[in-house]
Amino acid sequence: MGKVLKYSFYDLVRSRWSYIYFLFYLALGFVLLFLNSDLSKAVITLMNIIIVLVPLIGTIFGTMYYYNSKEFTELLLAQPIKRSHIFLGQYFGVAGSLSLSLAVGLGVPFMTYGLLRSNAIFDFSLLLGVGIFLTLIFTGLAFNIAISNENKIKGFGYAVLLWLFMAVIYDGIFLLSLIVFEEYPLDTFSMVATTLNPIDLSRTLILLKLDISALLGYTGAVFKRFFGTQLGFWVSMLVLVLWTLIPILRLKYKASRKDF
């Protein structure tokens, strides 16, 4: 698995799309900090971009890489290598290269503008950590969709639909539910519904740690009582870890039983 991971990682790191992804974040970081040198405000602005863009890129890259490397995968399957090692190696290679582009692309401009001497280092670390979690989660979901669908168009469509549901449609259904059932106590429902979507959970976690939960109104006060505590923070991290592990375990299960 280590050799497959190494090959997939180096293959993607050398690709032009990884350079474009890296340069996008590098340019974005420098532009934001040039316009406003306040690191905390830059972190808030980046949150709105990363929460949506990182899952989309992870979904697209994961699906494209699986289908484009299908012939090479079939060659590896003819070798005495465990199937799960092949697909897990490819998954970690893709997720690792995307995470590296994100971390270095944003890290360089923030380091240049004195991140290590600023109080915003903890907020930036949380933002970067959440971005890496979302990369791992949605790359894993993309691999699961691709391995379950032989048809490339159908698999790619399902992957994009999943991102669209998580990033846009889910929030609409969630807000509509709060409006329809506003006469009922919705504290528990709101927290459970938030944890069921890694994008919403990540956004809430960052907003609370940046201490701008007042922007969420009543919902922010409810979340503050749980997610704003030390226990709530670690529970949120645990949920993100579970969101990461479940697609990996399913990918391993599916790879070991799929007829290629």
- Percentage of residues in DSSP E strands: under 5%
Query: How is the main sheet built?
Result: none
Which residues sit in consecutive blocks of at least 5 with pLDDT less than 50? none
**What count of domains describes the coordinates?**
1
Overall average pLDDT: 83
Secondary structure: number of strands: 0
Discrete helix count: 11
Shape: globular
C-alpha-based Rg, rounded: 19 Å
Instruction: Decide which structural class fits the backbone.
Output: mainly alpha
Helix-strand pattern, N to C?
Answer: HHHHHHHHHHH
The proportion of residues forming helix, as a percent range, comes to: over 70%
First and last CA, distance: 19 Å
Task: Describe the structure in your own words.
By secondary structure, the protein is mainly α. It has one domain. Helices cover 83% and strands 0% of the residues. The protein is globular and about 55 Å long.
What structural keywords apply?
260 residues; 11 helices; globular; single chain; mainly alpha
